[in-house]
Amino acid sequence: MASRSATATVGSVSRRSSIAASAGLGVLAAAIGYLTSYVLIAGEVRDAFGDNVAEWKGVAWYFYNAHVVDVETSGTFGSFGGSDTVNFIAESSSTSATALYVIPPLVLFGTGVFLATQFDVSDVGEAVAVGAPVTIGYAVVVGLGALVAESSGEGSVFGIEISGSVAPALGPAVVLAGVLYPLVFATAGAVLAAVLDGR
User: Per the database record, which ranges form the DUF7978 domain (predicted)?
Assistant: First the structure.
């Protein structure tokens, strides 16, 4: 009876530690994906936006576009206003911009593989249990990032108020980029590692 209790305790601690490690690596995966995007696209962001937009925000917009999340633009001119969405990667002719589409899946897939090998996962159920919690950390970073990546400005021309803002669409940022991407790609990486290790 005592050995069964000790085994259950060890298993629950191991499960908790794997969830914490997976969530932590989700945060790291988001940071690595963003920094890789920064290296690839910062020059284009500088050319496109100049000093009008903070460079890190412009890179963030491309990073969200790489997750198939559009960036929302809205503006008002007096009593007139409107909004639209834009995908900077789709509008770019740069190959480094197009390459951004593969960064999030590759980083997340690699994270899943790393976790599966680190925790010596041997079956698909364990792989899902190790890969899926990457979503926790990734969703937090991507959700907060969508909020802080907003850029807005206002002014006046001939006494008429003008304002505008640009930001990743929050709902798709959280659902697509924060939840679906890590859930699919990190879990797939962990499952593939487990299947190959089981052979």
Answer: 1-196
Residue numbers of the domain that contains 180:
18-68+87-153+167-198
Nearest by Cα to 71 from 92, 44, 56, 89: 89
3-class DSSP string for 61-102: HHHHHCCCCCEEEEEEECCEEEEEEECHHHHCCCHHHHHHHH
Pairing of the two strands 151-157 and 71-77 = unpaired
7 belongs to a structural domain: no
160 is a domain residue: no
Q: 122 with 114: CB under 8 angstroms? A: no
Residue 10 counted as domain residue: no
Q: Mean pLDDT, consecutive 10-residue segments, the chain of 199 residues?
A: 41 65 94 96 90 92 96 77 84 89 97 93 90 95 95 71 82 95 96 85
Cα separation, 71 vs 149, whole angstroms: 10
Helix axis angle, 103-118 to 181-198, nearest 10°: 40
* CA dist., res. 111 & res. 47, Å (int): 33
CA distance 63 to 47: 17
What's the number of domains the chain is made of? 1
